[in-house]
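Hi Prof. W.,

I finally got the Membrane-associated protein prediction working! I wasn't sure whether to trim anything, so I left the full sequence exactly as given:
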Amino acid sequence: MKQCPYCHKQLNKQQVCQQCRLQVHFAVDPPSKNKRSKTPKTEKDKSSEKGTKSIRKWIPFIIIGFITFLLLILFLLLRNFNSPEAQAKILVNAVDNNDTAKVSNLISTKQNKVGRQEAERYIAYIKDEMGIKSFEKEVLQHVEQFDEDSPVSYTVKTDKNQDVLHISKNGRRYLIFDNLSFQAPMKKAVLKSDTEATYEFSANGNNKKVMGKGKEVVEIGRYIPGDYVLDATKTTSRGTYKGKLKFNTGSSDHDTVNAAEDFEEARVKVHLKNGDALDEGTRKVVINGETLNVSKDGTYGPFPLNKAMKVTAQGEIQGKKFKASSQTIAEKDVKDTNEVTVEFDGQAIEKYKKEQEKDMKEKVNDFIKKYISARNKASQNNRIADLKPYVLEDTYFYKSMTANLSKQKPLQNPKVTYINKSKGFYSVIVEAETKQGDAVRSHYLLQDGEHDQNFKIVNYEAY
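And this is what came out:
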């Protein structure tokens, strides 16, 4: 039975709804909720429906394949930057491109932070000592061996067997790749100063200060491979020098390398005039108040270039001090090599020397007279004790006199005719007479008396 499509009033055959007055002569029966009209399927529809079911069947595989493809791309991307080979190539490329920031970051450790200045020296050292191609070959070969042998670490060396780089495993990256650690080996730089000095210099951006004692070795730091030229100052009792500390880690086969000094220094050659008459060993050169022994070539130093030099000299004759004239080199005139002449008062030295020779001759002459008198007495009494104040015991001469004392002929009128002093000994020639008036000429070697004591006869020889 038909219904009104508006108010759903059942209709018989009326064309107008008796309830809502809607004309319904075109109304049709609504489709049943339980029954749907079925249109016969064509071959085309059946084929389309079959294709749809086939596509739906492959969708999970397509999704899985797409995800696998994405994961593969991700793996390749990660591998390009995180595999051991990639890590090694990043370091090699940084060295090749002089990328100091990258190199310093790659070879720094918690214990040793490498700055850009050190990285720059490190890069230059690798290129000079190995060459970038050889370095790349060595690094990549060692990295490949990690997979084969699984060692703890490898060391890259130069042709001269110098360590350049330590490569080791340090955990994992993304649970897949070995994480590599690159570390530059270090050597201890040491310095040996000839005198007590303080060194101040800058290394890797850090200011350092070390104290060096004369002839002692002092450490100035630990450094990665490289050729180092460090700006430095050196302060001693003579002043402050400007210059550099230089060392190359490749110059040593050990864990230490010696640093060389290269400071701006002045030296002065001093000529001593009228100083030959001074006693040997007493002549000294005095520069800026510092007393120095006379050098073989007359050159002294080093001294600072930025400080004036006042030069003089001094010496002695038998305890009497003489001072030479002084010469001053102004600060602006100080050069690497300088030359001055200082002069002793030759007349004063000669006058004093003659006075001393006269006094000494009188003193020696008095000693010889007393000895001859004691000798005559000892020979007469055959008593050696009379000669002990004059003759040095335990000498050949003393023993000879003891054995032949009674045979000694008496002498008289002794006179010293020659005296020469050398290193604390006096060579003396004495002329005397026997009682018969015969002349006797003898040579004595006397030991200089110390602390106002008498001379001692060391040896005797008759002419």
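The longest helix spans residues 43-82. Does that look reasonable to you?

Thanks,
D.
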